[in-house]
Amino acid sequence: MSILVLGLGNILLMDEGVGVRAMEAFDAAWSVPDHVSVVDGGTCGMDMLDLIASHKHLIAVDAVKTGAPPASLTVLRGDEVPAYFKGKLSPHQLGLSDLLASLRLQDEAPESVTVVGCVPMALGTGLMMSPEIEAVIPRMVTMIVEELARLGVTATPRN
User: Fold this and answer.
1) 11 with 17: CB under 8 angstroms?
2) pTM: predicted TM-score of the whole model, two decimal places
3) What stretch of H or E contains 144?
4) DSSP letter at 116?
5) CA-CA 20 to 30 A from 98: which of 7, 42, 58, 144?
6) Please, what are the domains in the chain?
């Protein structure tokens, strides 16, 4: 059972890069078995098609627009995931939506897709995230660990 943990976002647009930053924090703190890939997907172009298709489970970590207050965290699974694309936050989300649609048409989509998300505060140009968003990254890392456990995978601390 191969699993892909895919950090998404544009780190040049402040909080829009929270998915990449959370994935980096997870990768720095936790070790996973060989059948789990941890990847910086950035803005997720069509070149990710083969990578996503080669995994049975996808955990995408991203900034999301849910209508909740900034810095709110959410986990979307299964049928909840398409609703996430209705409120597009940034151009890269269309890329992920297109990738998943293409994979479904080719009958190569992952068996399950989960989005671990955070509602951003600021999307201006800049490398720094809002302090409130930076503060929730440890909780996002915990959410990734919990999602892996839900899939039967034990992540171990790197300490």
Assistant:
1) yes
2) 0.90
3) helix 131-150
4) E
5) 144
6) 3-157 (3.40.50.1450)
